[in-house]
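For the sake of clarity, the format in which proteins appear in this thesis is described at this point. The fold follows as a row of integers, each naming the local backbone shape at the matching residue. One such record is shown here in full, so that the layout can be seen directly:
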Amino acid sequence: MVLPCEIAVKSVVPAIRAAIARDLVEKHGFTQAQVAEILGISQPAVCKYTRRVRGQTIDIENLENLQGQKEVIVSLLMGEEPKRAALLGLFCQMCMLVRKEGLMCPLCHRTDLRIKSQGCDFCLDAKPTSK
């Protein structure tokens, strides 16, 4: 059984990181080294994100409902002391929105062929959990 979070780690998380990295470099003038430090990843990873070599399994650039959250994340990251809990919550919300759009479905189907025959709408109907 393939869990949606397994697919998200390999596809959605890199896509979100790539969008954030490109925003920090292209719109806000950060260097790749600065972005690497902010995101806790390597500078070569940032380079691949900005060149669209990595983080392109799922295209999230044109999802309007993600843009506002991405901008909030970028603003928090540019602050002096970003709030980890707020960042994690926003990141998880972005992932949930990508899943609700059905963008992970083809990846899940390729990973586990049984999903096609059984059908799956878990991500499409998923509701965020609360504390």
